[in-house]
TrEMBL record:
An annotated Gene Ontology molecular function: metal ion binding
The organism's taxonomic lineage, starting at the top: Eukaryota, Fungi, Dikarya, Ascomycota, Pezizomycotina
Domain of life: Eukaryota
Family: Belongs to the GTP cyclohydrolase I type 2/NIF3 family.
InterPro entries, A to Z: DUF34/NIF3, DUF34/NIF3_sf
Alphabetical UniProt keywords: Metal-binding
Positions annotated to bind a divalent metal cation: H79, D117, H307, E311
GO CC terms in record: mitochondrion
Listed name of the protein: NGG1p interacting factor 3
Signal peptide: none
Region (Disordered): 137-169
Length: 378
């Protein structure tokens, strides 16, 4: 008895084609990165997946569960779940376990990673659009950005009871864990992107005539200096108003003192790429203690967002709609080509009748780090 040839689902081919056109693998830094189709699951016509894609930054167990529950065909995971060569694939490793489960369910995995970073209009440009944006609405009443010293001095002093008063219970802080806002809560209209006059160019340009403007990182130079508080507000609005994010400024300075004429930008971990740049502000996902210390000693400011919080909003704000349109177009091409191919089985023809296409952003993907906020209750 002859067995039918093993192949991936026609819809999965359409998704891969769309990703390769939007973010060509030639843009990725193959010297260290691992991009492209990382898991190609075979097509099982008896258990066909939905024509849907799930976008995520990290492919965790929670995201794998989500894709299986949703019956998706493809997970597009920004970070590659396979970085180095594997000598075995077993259930003992949590990431390999997710891959095995996804393969068993017929779900494929594609990772674009640094191809998105380098692409014109990609992740680097999105962060540059935020830093050069302007608020679309007035700030909420009472909202302001201040230095700790000035905020303390502006508060009226309240008499405090003696610490040893036996009749009063001391107020105890309650620590609440706050994670970065869900991408579903991002308000795209809260910031007019790229509306402040500036120039920009890649930090590390790529010599690819077919992709002008491609390269790793971005340097933004404003036509007029911008106050640091105004840039902090733009970052907050562009990223869904998180409860807080780390900032480093030179000792002896206050946030209100800092005037910014230039910004170095790198999504994710920017220590290496941003090192040695002659700019006023370094804007990235994360930097090491010593990298940040070296920057402020040179008079620079640093804003970090936690690694994947500098990347996740792009999936919702840009990539979801972009990929939806591209996959719809590619799905029509694949359907036509498959129908014209000789020897196509009834099960495949049935799959080709389904014109639905869906792209959604994971609701369970999040950075491992949150911020613990202290609140004192009476």
């Amino acid at each position: 008895m002859m067995t039918s040839p093993t192949a991936s689902a026609p819809f999965s081919k359409a998704v891969v084609n769309a990703m390769r056109k939007l973010y060509p693998e030639a843009l990725a830094d193959k010297s260290w990165d691992n991009t492209g189709l990382l898991l190609e699951s075979p097509f099982d016509p008896l258990r066909r997946q939905m024509n849907s894609v799930l976008l995520t930054v990290d492919l965790t167990k929670a995201v794998a569960d989500e894709a299986i529950e949703r019956n998706d065909s493809v997970i597009v995971a920004y970070h590659p779940i396979i970085f180095r060569g594997l000598k075995s694939i077993t259930l003992a490793n949590s990431q390999q376990q997710s891959l095995l489960r996804l393969a068993a369910e017929g779900i494929s995995v594609y990772s674009p990673h640094s191809a998105i970073d380098a692409a014109p209009g990609g992740l680097g440009d999105w962060l540059a659009d935020i830093i050069t944006g302007e608020p679309a609405t007035a700030p909420e009443e009472g909202a302001m950005i201040t230095d700790e010293t000035s905020s303390k001095s502006s508060k009226p002093s309240t008499p405090q009871p003696p610490e040893d008063d036996p009749f009063l219970e001391p107020k105890r802080p309650i620590y609440l864990l706050q994670h970065h806002p869900s991408t579903a809560n991002l308000q795209d209209g809260d910031l007019k992107l790229a509306s402040t006059a500036h120039t920009r160019h890649p930090i590390r340009p790529l010599d690819l005539p077919a992709h002008p403007g491609a390269g790793m990182g971005r340097i933004v130079r404003f036509s007029k200096p911008q106050s640091l508080p105004s840039l902090i507000e733009r970052i907050g609005r562009g990223l869904g108003n998180p409860k807080g994010f780390p900032i480093a400024i030179p000792q002896g300075k206050q946030i209100s003192d800092m005037s910014i004429s230039s910004v170095g930008i790198c999504a994710g971990s920017g220590g290496d790429l941003l090192s040695g740049l002659d700019v006023d502000l370094l804007f990235t996902g994360e930097m090491s203690h010593h990298e940040a210390l070296a920057a402020i000693e040179k008079g620079q400011c640093v804003v970090t967002l936690f690694h994947s919080n500098s990347e996740r909003g792009f999936l919702h704000s840009v990539m979801r709609q972009q990929l939806l349109e591209a996959v719809k177009a590619e799905w029509e091409v694949v359907r036509k080509e498959e129908r014209e191919r000789e020897g196509v089985g009834e099960e495949v023809l049935e799959a080709l009748e389904d014109g639905y296409v869906g792209v959604e952003v994971s609701e369970r993907d999040r950075d491992p780090y949150g911020i613990v906020v202290s609140k004192v209750y009476d």
